[in-house]
Structure formats: C-alpha cells, structure tokens
C-alpha cells in the first residue's frame, strides 16, 4: 500500500502529535501495485532482497495470481463484498472484537471470488500443464472440501490443505476481506486485547513495515495477512509476544547491518528476532525503498528466513502465498 502524498496546505492542518492507529487498505490499487512489486523482485531489481532463479519463477506465478485478484475486484459486482449489518459491526466494536472476523462462518460470496480468480488464470494455465492441473483439482473440490481447506489455511495447518492449493484459497479470502475492510470507518475500530492480531479481522500479521509520509512518518505498522489493514505497534517490540527485553535484528548482510549505514540496502528487509519467545517476523523499511510491499517482500526474502531459521528462530506466522509448513 503506497501512502497518498499530502499537498502543502494539508500538511499544516495535521495534528503531528496523533499517531494513526489503523491504516485501512486501498483495495482497488493494492493488488495491482503488489503484482508489479512481485515482478520487480523476480527480476532482481530490489537491492537488499536477492532472488534466485527458482524463486523468481514462483514470484512471477504469484504475480499472475495477484493480477487475478485485482481483476476479480474490478469484474465482480459490488454486492459480492457486502458488509455485515451495522448493528453486528457496532456490537463487535463495543466489545473490542474484530468487526470482520475471519473465524467462524464465512460469507458464501467468498466462493464467488474464488471462482473468478481461477477463471482469470485459465489463459495462463493453457501453456502451463502443472498450473492447469492445480486449477482442475481446485475446481473439483465440493463446498465442504473448499470450506475445510479455507479453515486449514486460516489456521495455518499442515493437514487439510494441499500446499499447492493453499495460495489460491488464501488469495480469494484476501480479496474478500480486503475489499470489506476498505469499507470500514477506521476511526471507530477499537484495539483488541492483544496488539499482535489484526483489529479488523483478527488474523495474524504477515510482516511489519516502517512507513513514511504524513502522520505515519517513521512509525512501524503490522500488515494483516488476510485483510491488508495495518495497525501501529511501537518499534523494538516483539510482534508475537510483545516483549521488549530481547529483541534484535538480522539482515542478509550482517556486516552492512553492523555498520548502520543510513542508506544501507540491507535494511530494506530485516528479521526482528525475539529471544523470549524464539520467533521472528520480518520488518521492511519504506525509508529505504518507497515501494515496499510487506507481503510481496516477505515472500521474496526467503534467504532471510533460512538465515534466522538456522539460528534457531521460528516464523511467528506464515505468508498466505506460500505454505511455509509444507516440505
């Protein structure tokens, strides 16, 4: 999500003491920008996030999937993304619960989104037999199987979902919840009891990002893996256990990291590790690359996952476009 640049007249009117707690997604531009970012990453155009040939092929495939997400948003009627009634939303907000929870029963319309995404990929699958086979398998799932797959994806379970199916199911859920989140009044959404889950839908964050521009300048936000909302969390605080005593940062090039250079490309992507809960989550810095996309950049920086994994840390949560728990 790229922040809108403010005009000079707007800057003076800002309350610079107020930190925006919640940044809701701009759903109709987010997926188009993410697909472009994935292709940049696949082409090794982003300093600090090296991508090998095998991963580049996967990133290009995911870029096509994200393109299909964007097309589904443009092509599906507005009622596909209908909101819960106002009373239901208000009741959740009053009790500091997510107004659009991913847990529980999902609106059946998400399956319409799923079908639209698969339809958009048919042209690409015509020249890729493996993709065509996966799409055929996904279409063969009945409603109960598909809903069970979605449950497993949201719970990050290794059982109940094929690793090649998971990104396509996750993509449909992302579109559904991102579009609905974009319709909320962010000022009314209340923080949850824990700041480690999305206040909009209750899902885990995929990564965190230091934003620039306007009142968000220099603040760290967690980006939701499901609805793409971003919520504020202070820096140097574990986004898994909220501890502060044993937080450290790892980058692919530790020598550059140690030098703390102002424009160090290695600081585009770092892993925030915690020696209290022994987990990590990546943190990306828009100050070093304006077009950072936490989900796309997390997907591309698997070299960093290998580095911190070998050091004994576990991922705090997965990336919906890659089934990390799968062999």
From TrEMBL:
Residues 236-322 form the FdhE C-terminal domain. Residues 19-192 form the FdhE N-terminal domain. Its main location: cytoplasm. Residues 197-235 form the FdhE central domain. Keywords: Cytoplasm. It holds the Pfam family FdhE_central. The keyword Zinc does not apply. One of its GO terms (cellular component) is cytosol. The keyword Cytoplasm applies. One of its GO terms (molecular function) is ferric iron binding. It is found in: Cytoplasm. GO terms for biological process: protein maturation. InterPro entries: FdhE-like_sf (IPR024064), FdhE_C (IPR056796), FdhE_central (IPR056797), FdhE_N (IPR056774), Formate_DH_accessory (IPR006452). Necessary for formate dehydrogenase activity. Belongs to the FdhE family. This is Protein FdhE homolog. It comes from Duganella radicis. The lineage of its organism: Bacteria, Pseudomonadati, Pseudomonadota, Betaproteobacteria, Burkholderiales. The gene is fdhE.
């Amino acid at each position: 999500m790229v922040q809108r640049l403010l005009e000079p007249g707007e800057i003076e009117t800002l309350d610079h003491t107020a930190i925006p707690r919640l940044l809701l997604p701009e759903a109709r531009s987010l997926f188009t920008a993410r697909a472009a970012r994935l292709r940049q990453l696949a082409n090794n155009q982003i300093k600090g996030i090296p991508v090998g040939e095998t991963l580049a092929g996967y990133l290009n495939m995911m870029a096509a999937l994200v393109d299909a997400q964007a097309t589904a948003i443009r092509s599906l009627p507005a009622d596909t993304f209908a909101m819960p009634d106002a009373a239901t939303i208000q009741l959740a907000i009053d009790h500091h619960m997510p107004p659009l929870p991913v847990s529980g029963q999902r609106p059946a319309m998400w399956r319409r989104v799923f079908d639209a995404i698969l339809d958009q990929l048919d042209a690409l699958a015509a020249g890729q037999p493996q993709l065509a086979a996966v799409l055929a398998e996904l279409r063969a799932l009945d409603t109960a199987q598909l809903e069970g797959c979605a449950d497993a994806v949201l719970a990050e379970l290794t059982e109940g979902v094929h690793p090649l199916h998971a990104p396509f199911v996750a993509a449909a859920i992302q579109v559904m919840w991102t579009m609905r989140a974009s319709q909320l009044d962010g000022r009314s959404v209340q923080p949850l009891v824990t700041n480690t889950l999305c206040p909009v839908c209750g899902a885990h964050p995929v990564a965190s990002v230091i934003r620039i521009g306007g009142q968000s300048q220099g603040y760290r936000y967690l980006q939701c893996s499901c609805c793409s909302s971003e919520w504020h969390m202070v820096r140097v605080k574990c986004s898994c256990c909220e501890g502060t005593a044993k937080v450290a940062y790892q980058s692919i090039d530790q020598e550059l990291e140690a030098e703390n250079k102002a424009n160090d490309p290695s600081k585009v992507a770092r892993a925030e590790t915690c020696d209290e809960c022994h987990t990590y989550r990546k943190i990306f810095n828009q100050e070093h690359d304006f077009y950072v996309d936490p989900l796309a950049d997390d997907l591309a920086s698997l070299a960093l996952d290998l580095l911190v994994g070998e050091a004994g840390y576990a991922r705090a949560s997965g990336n919906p476009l890659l089934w990390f728990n799968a062999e």
